[in-house]
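Sequence, please.
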């Protein structure tokens, strides 16, 4: 009874590769087995050919090495025919990616605010000063020198008087006493807390020149960042170190290009596209190396980003989204001049989706390359089918990640809006909620589209790569 290969229904197009290569082409039937000769008979042995003596004065030519027979499909994966195809693929990728990289650099040069002064807030923000709380007292809200006579009114709100010692600034080492009304939104300070004060430039002896702003959080944040870096390096080793360097360069692009350009009045969407392109090239190539596999991930990410930007622009305009939420309105008031609020919304969509897209496209290209390495006989259609089945599982988790990330960021807005007591339709149609819906759904569509786009590109290119370069 003939044993059949593992069913495609169970494992897809990946078939068992046996030690004996098959010389049949696709679509032909399996050749019958040869029956062994009866016992007592000997199979005729072919006559041995004696080597011909070399002619005098002529060197013996080197015998050509036998080429490996094809396995499964009719095309060969040997050293000879595959290398030119791979060179053509690399040239094609270069012709596609080099213009995009040049356009990214040109966009950053044109959009950067050369020669312009850094944007400043029209409202005085004060100079940050560090201080340490030495003691706190809860009591009536009294000005300096006032004394409480009798019982306070029943509706009077208590105040928290904090005694502090400044550790830097113009009055370093001097004590300070500040009184704050206790509100539900007021932070609770206690003795030993390290806080940040805002100094408005007035008399350092006057407590009105200072205001408590926030806690100092530098030490725990540095410890957490060190723990994160250690975990990445221990697991990823050199590739993890490269990923950390790429992360740092991404923050450099955001801090030194994206933020100054938008604050200077440039189009937020164009700035976000140029910045996302720079982050994409730097992060992917630095982390995963300069290879055809990484180039496919870059192309898939770029196509998906374009789709996300187009969908966000169309549906934000159709839904009449202005982008003027509380934080954007506060930003415009601090700048003192107008800004493209809807473009700022679209810029946030593009940059926010970039990290998830990198994960999807790199995973898909790696999956296709590993499938080809496991079975070099797979053609591009079989690689695409197997990679797409992997991508379906990845899409579900990636979309859920993006939705939960946006929902977590918008949780205070969701809670505040739900207090209004109106219907669900009115809540979902509010500006703050509707822009998060557009942001989430447009990014999710781009993630879903990234799977087939990246998989088909990876399958077409991986199937033409020589086996030794996989």
């Amino acid at each position: 009874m003939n044993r059949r290969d593992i069913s495609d229904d169970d494992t897809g197009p990946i078939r068992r590769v046996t030690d004996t290569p098959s010389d049949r082409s696709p679509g032909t039937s399996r050749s019958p087995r040869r029956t062994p000769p009866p016992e007592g008979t000997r199979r005729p042995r072919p006559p041995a050919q004696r080597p011909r003596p070399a002619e005098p004065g002529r060197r013996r030519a080197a015998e050509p090495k036998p080429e490996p027979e094809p396995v499964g499909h009719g095309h060969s994966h040997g050293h000879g025919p595959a290398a030119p195809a791979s060179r053509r693929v690399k040239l094609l990728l270069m012709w596609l990616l080099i213009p995009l990289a040049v356009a990214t650099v040109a966009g950053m040069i044109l959009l950067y605010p050369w020669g312009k002064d850094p944007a400043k807030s029209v409202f005085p923000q004060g100079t940050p000063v560090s201080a340490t709380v030495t003691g706190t007292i809860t009591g009536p809200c009294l000005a300096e020198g006032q004394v409480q006579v009798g019982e306070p009114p029943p509706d009077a709100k208590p105040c928290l008087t904090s005694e502090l010692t400044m550790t830097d600034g113009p009055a370093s080492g001097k004590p300070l006493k500040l009184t704050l009304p206790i509100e539900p939104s007021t932070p609770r300070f206690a003795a030993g807390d390290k806080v940040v004060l805002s100094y408005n430039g007035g008399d350092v002896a006057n407590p009105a020149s200072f205001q408590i702003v926030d806690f100092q959080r530098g030490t725990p944040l540095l410890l957490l960042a060190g723990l994160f870096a250690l975990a990445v390096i221990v697991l990823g080793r050199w590739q993890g170190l490269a990923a950390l360097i790429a992360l740092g360069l991404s923050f450099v692009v955001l801090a030194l290009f994206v933020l100054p350009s938008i604050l200077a009045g440039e189009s937020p969407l164009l700035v976000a596209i140029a910045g996302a392109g720079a982050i994409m090239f730097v992060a992917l190539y630095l982390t995963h190396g300069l290879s055809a596999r990484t180039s496919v991930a870059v192309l898939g990410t770029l196509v998906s980003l374009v789709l996300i930007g187009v969908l966000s622009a169309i549906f934000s305009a159709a839904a009449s989204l202005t982008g003027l939420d509380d934080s954007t309105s506060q930003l415009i008031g601090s700048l003192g001049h107008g800004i493209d609020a809807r473009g700022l919304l679209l810029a946030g969509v593009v940059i926010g989706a970039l990290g998830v897209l990198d994960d999807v496209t790199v995973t898909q290209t790696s999956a296709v390359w590993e499938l080809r390495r496991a079975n070099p006989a797979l053609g591009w259609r079989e690689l695409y089918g197997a990679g797409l089945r992997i991508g379906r599982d990845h899409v579900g988790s990636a979309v859920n990640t993006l939705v939960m990330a946006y929902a977590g960021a918008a949780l205070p807005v969701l809670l505040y809006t739900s207090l209004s007591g109106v219907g669900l339709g009115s809540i979902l149609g509010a500006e703050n909620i509707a822009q998060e819906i557009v942001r989430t759904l447009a990014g999710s569509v781009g993630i879903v589209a990234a799977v087939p786009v990246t998989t088909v590109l990876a399958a077409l290119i991986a199937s033409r790569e020589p086996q030794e370069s996989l």
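Residues 92 and 431 are 45 Å apart (CA to CA).
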